């Protein structure tokens, strides 16, 4: 009964979101963004390849980064030569 109530509410939320942002609109917005890049191609380039990780917290250490802004951090990693983030 409880799970059925959650499912009903979630389905209603999804319907509202689909009306607010139809799939065609989302696809249009995505098309305007940067093209996707191939991880395999990047890792096959000559030289050292670095895969950087974004992590606000870890199970063993807890919070690693208080001021966590993933887009900003990813941009810094990319600007400094990370092959992938």
Brief synopsis:
This protein is mainly α and 85 residues long.
Describe the protein's architecture and organization:
There is one protein chain. With about 80 residues, the chain is mainly alpha-helical. The chain contains four helices and two strands, in the order H-H-H-E-E-H. The protein has helices at about 1-20, 25-30, 40-45, 70-80, and strands spanning about 55-60, 60-65. The protein has a two-stranded antiparallel sheet with strand order 1-2. Strand 1 and strand 2 (about 60-65) form a beta hairpin. The chain is extended. The relative contact order is 0.11. The mean pLDDT is about 90.
Main beta-sheet annotation: 2 strands, antiparallel
Q: Please provide the ordered H/E string of secondary-structure elements.
A: HHHEEH
- Global geometry: extended
Summarize model confidence as the mean pLDDT: 90
SS strand fraction: under 5%
Question: What count of helical segments does DSSP give?
Answer: 4
Radius of gyration over all CA atoms, rounded:
19 Å
Instruction: Outline the low-pLDDT stretches.
Output: none
Strand order of the biggest β-sheet: 1-2
Q: How many β strands by DSSP?
A: 2
Secondary-structure content class: mainly alpha
Give the topology, please.
Elements: H1 2-20, H2 23-31, H3 39-44, E1 57-58, E2 62-63, H4 70-79
Antiparallel strand pairs: 1-2
Short key terms for the protein model shown above:
mainly alpha; 85 residues
């Amino acid at each position: 009964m409880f799970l059925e109530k959650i499912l009903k509410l979630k389905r209603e939320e999804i319907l509202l979101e689909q009306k607010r942002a139809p799939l065609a609109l989302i696809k249009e917005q995505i098309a305007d963004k940067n093209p996707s890049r191939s991880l395999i191609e990047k890792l096959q380039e000559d030289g050292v390849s670095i895969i950087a990780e974004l992590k606000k917290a870890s199970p063993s250490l807890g919070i690693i980064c208080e001021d966590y802004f993933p887009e900003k951090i990813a941009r810094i990693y990319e600007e400094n030569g990370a092959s992938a983030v």
